[in-house]
Each structure stands twice: as structure tokens, then as C-alpha cells.
Amino acid sequence: MPPYTTTSLKAELNSRGWRLTPQREKILHVFQNLPRGNHLSAEELFHLLEQRGEPISLSTIYRSVKLMTRMGILRELELAEGHKHYELHQPHPHHHHHVVCIQCNRTIEFNSDSVLKQSLRQAEREGLQLIDCQLNVMTICPEALRMGWPSSLPSDWACSRAISEEEPSNSQLS
Amino acid sequence: MPPYTTTSLKAELNSRGWRLTPQREKILHVFQNLPRGNHLSAEELFHLLEQRGEPISLSTIYRSVKLMTRMGILRELELAEGHKHYELHQPHPHHHHHVVCIQCNRTIEFNSDSVLKQSLRQAEREGLQLIDCQLNVMTICPEALRMGWPSSLPSDWACSRAISEEEPSNSQLS
DNA sequence: CTTTTTGCAAAGTTTTTGCACTATA
DNA sequence: TATAGTGCAAAAACTTTGCAAAAAG
After folding, report:
1. CA A7, A9, A11: angle at the middle one, nearest 5?
2. Structure pTM?
3. Minimal Cα distance from B133: which residue of A?
4. Residue ranges of domains in chain B
5. At a CB cut-off of 8 Å and minimum separation 6, what does A165 contact?
6. Where would a tag sit more exposed on chain A, N or C end, judged by fewer CB atoms within 10 A?
7. Which among B110, B123, B134 is the nearest to A122, CB-wise?
């Protein structure tokens, strides 16, 4: 279904008794222009729009991402500790899963047909309709293990792989 | 590694400079006697122990489940909305994944070698050590769809499958 | 006896809600 | 112009933290 245009988003919303608003359009726009592999938390989305000079209230953000997730437009990810992240919900061929380092939260995407197939099979087996499937592969880097994880690890220690991947490079996201 | 005895738990803790306490032992005991397919949130664990007349402070619960998760004794699940659930971390042959109904949060376990294999492969590819992998299959029952999900669904509506699965049957969990 | 762990209460995060106002269909 | 959506501020839900007392090794 994606990419959505203003028109198709409106149609999608209206068909369910919901309305197209500038806020919803802007939020979708952000996600559609987010570089591959990036995902935003509600707060990050809030700040991004704020910095862009198009502020939207935080509660509207929360309400919108939840709505758009239910509609199947966004995908809710629970990768890092604490807060949820959202990304565009891609159709099957682009559907992806995540490898996460539980030390630094760095994430890497990967594709897998077999995982999707397995998920479909299990949903079917229960007579349920598949909405989404997410495989989270939790890992730790050998360096962290060598450093004594999980007991003694200097509090300021970071994986060598933990490049500045924390903050999505906010430069020019549409 | 599981099942843990008091002795092996103590050894495991001590080897990392941690200590065996009655609280940690009780918590492990609860999980070891939890019927298959059940998992508890911090709060549920708190109430369970309270009702049993062996109260443990909520902050200790939080600290303990986090520690035991890092140690690989427990497994942290993010299935339902809002709060995390914990269960015993089973070794490979018993490792399982979950089908979840996003309407009623009912969960069903399933096993899959291929998913584990896929996870190992991806972790390896990145030079990372696999700690855990969790496949969450989000589904919705056809009845809910027929009732108009996701837009118009009576607020009190529940899947016919949504038996009293919400509260783990607290009857006599060791 | 040194160091970790606990329980408590207070504070921190993240998310939701009520309500008057505004905008959409 | 009826109904859905917004923004605000207040509340709720969940989790973490500081600290003094207690317990483990």
C-alpha cells in the first residue's frame, strides 16, 4: 500500500470514519522520508517537528502513531529499553527484522522469508489473521563479554561498534 | 542450565560477585513453578508473593528480574501493551515464540528451529553473540475484523477466544 | 567486618485522559 | 454544522533511585 500520497491517506482515513489533518499528514511525511533503518520514538518525532518549526502537541503525536499503527501504516518496535519506536510499515517484500545489541542498543536490519512463512503458518494454525511479525535477535558483542558483562562493566564503557548510532542523524529528514 | 537449585543459583550469583538472598530465591522459585505458557509482570509477581504471605518490596522485584534477565535466568517479554512480562529462560530445545492477538492480548506459544537458526546466522554475520531471540506474531481474529476493527469496535467487545486468559490463574503457583 | 542488598519513600519516565476549542467532511 | 481532532495541563502507569538499616560472604 505505501507509499501514501495525501490523497490515498485521506481515502484510507475517511473509509474508516477518520479525518485527514495537517498533523497526521506531517507525521506520515516524516516517516516516509526517514532514511532506511531509522525509527523514531514519540518524543524524537516531537522534537524533530518542533525543530522544523512545525510543532505538534506530544499527545497528538502519541494519539497519531497509535492510530496509524492500528491502521497498519506504521509499525511499532520495542527494541531498546524504555520507549517504543515507530517506522513505516513496509509490505512483505521489504518486511524486516532486527538484531539488537543489548549493551548499546545498536540495531541492524535483516530480511527473512522463512521467518515470515513461519509466522503466517502459526497464525493460520490458530485461525488468526497476521498483522505483523517481528523477530528480535538480542545479542552482545564479544568485547563486552570480555570486559566482564554482565557483572563488572565500567559504567561508561561502550562497544567499539557503538558508533554515534544513538541519535538518528537529524540532518535533512524531509 | 535450568532448573536451578538453591545451590546452583548461589554458585551462579557468587561467581559474578553477587549474593544469594531469600528474595532472589523466592522469585526464582515462583518462575520455576509457573505453569507453561504463563509469564508475570513485576506487579503480578509482587501481588503473587504478597498473597502468599511472603511480601517483597516492589523495587526489589524490579531489581531482581532485571538482574536475573541479564544473567540469562529469566527472559523479558514485550507482548502486551504497557508492561513487560518475565518467564524462565529455557534452553534451546524449549525455546519458544509467541502468537499474540493485538485485540485481547491472548498469547500462544510455538517452537521453531528455523527461527532460531535464522537468528544465530544473523548474529554471527555481525560478529555478535546470541543471547536470545523472540519472534512476536501479531494477529487479530477474523471476528474482530468482521466487527469493524480497527475503527468501530464496541469498547466492551472481546474475542470469543478471549477466555479468562488475562489474569494468570493464581491458584497454587508454588 | 566489608560490601551487597533490602525496603521505603520520593522522584523519574513515558503515556494517557478530560475538556474547551478548532477544523474536517 | 455535526462530529472528530487538537492542545494543554493534569493524572496515570510504570520504573528507577537515594539512603539508612539489614544481611551475605
Report:
1. 70
2. 0.90
3. A137
4. 1-90, 94-174
5. A104, A106, A107
6. C
7. B110
Q: In this complex, is the C-beta atom of A131 within 8 Å of any C-beta atom belonging to chain B?
A: yes
Asked whether the predicted pLDDT for residue B55 surpasses 80, the reply is yes
d(CA A87, CA A75): 5
**CA dist A23 → A9, A28, A104 (Å):** 12, 9, 33
Q: Cβ separation of A139 and B130 shorter than 8 Å?
A: yes
Query: What are A118's three cell numbers?
Result: 513461519
Contact A135, B118 (CB under 8 A): yes
Put simply, whether A28 touches B (Cβ < 8 Å) is no
**Architecture of the domain spanning A1-90:** Orthogonal Bundle (1.10)
User: Do A92 and A117 form a contact (C-beta atoms < 8 A)?
Assistant: no
- Residue B120 has what pLDDT? 97
Right CATH for A94-174 from 3.30.70.330, 3.30.1490.190, 3.40.190.10, 3.90.550.10: 3.30.1490.190
B81 touching A (Cβ < 8 Å): no
Search chain A and give the residue with CA nearest B119: A137
User: Which positions in strand D are less than 7 Å from the protein's CB atoms?
Assistant: 4-10, 13-18, 23-25
How far: A154 CA to C2 C1' (Å)?
Answer: 21
B127-138 CB burial, b ≥16 within 10 A, e <16: ebbbbbbbbbbb
Q: Which residues in B lie closer than 8 A to residue A142 (C-beta atoms)? A: 127-129
Per CB-CB distance under 8 Å, the chain B contacts of A96 are none
Among partner residues A78, A122, A139, which is closest to B123 by beta-carbon distance?
A139
The per-residue pLDDT for range B135-156, each reduced to its tens digit, is: 999 999 998 888 888 887 776 6
Please compute the mean of the pLDDT values over residues A64-78 and round it to a whole number: 96
